[in-house]
Amino acid sequence: MRDLIDDGRNGFLVDVGDHEAIIRKMRKLWEDPALASSISTAARETAGVYTWERFASELTSFYGKLLDLRQKGCL
């Protein structure tokens, strides 16, 4: 998710399996309601640009490029 999450702005990034880091981040949000609100707002804004229409368009474009490469013998 590093391509979507800006750590500390619209979410938090932690290493897979690092349960202690998750707990620390949750406590940080619990203890700082202004930060929690700010991150929540930024997360909604980030999520808002990822519509089904955008997903469909990007997926169609990706498969189109794959087909083009296949026809050129690159795949």
Strand segment tally: 0
- Strand percent estimate: under 5%
Helix content: 55-70%
| Helix count, DSSP H or I runs of 4 or more residues | 3
| Secondary-structure element pattern, one letter each | HHH
Concise synopsis of the structure shown:
The chain has helices spanning 19-31, 33-48, 52-71. It has 75 residues and is mainly alpha-helical. It has one domain (19-71).
Describe the structure.
The chain has 75 residues and is mostly helical. 65% of the residues lie in helices and 0% in strands. The protein is built from 3 helices and no strands. The longest helix is centred in the C-terminal third of the chain and has 20 residues, at 52-71. The mean pLDDT is 95.
Give the helices and strands, then pairings.
Layout: H1 19-31, H2 33-48, H3 52-71
